[in-house]
Amino acid sequence: MYTFHLLFRPEPEGGYTVLVPSLPGCLTWAESIEDGKELIKEAIHVYLESVEKHSEKIHDDTESFYTSVNYDHV
Question: Is 30 left (phi over 0), alpha (psi -120 to 50) or beta?
């Protein structure tokens, strides 16, 4: 079982780009957050198949966390 953080970025034309930060290049687009969660599972599956095929290590987010900082550029 792997754990992956998801980033949902709202797009100006509507919907969301969904990214998996620990899997560079693994992304999809969806009209809603619910659809995005389902579509990104398929993208993760395809991505991990390629990683395994090339005998690369899978990096997940089991021990990671997100935080943020506000920066006011003066």
Answer: beta
Q: Can you give the pTM of this predicted structure?
A: 0.82
CB of 3 within 8 A of CB of 61?
A: yes
- The token duo for 53 is 């095929």
Confidence bin at 67 (pLDDT 50/70/90): confident
* Chain segment 49-66, per-residue pLDDT in tens: 999 999 998 888 988 888
Task: Collect all residues with Cβ–Cβ distance below 8 Å to 5 and sequence separation of at least 6.
Answer: 20, 21, 22, 61, 64, 66
- How many Cα atoms within 13 Å fall on the side-chain side of residue 62? 5
Whole-number Å distance between alpha carbons of 32 and 59: 27
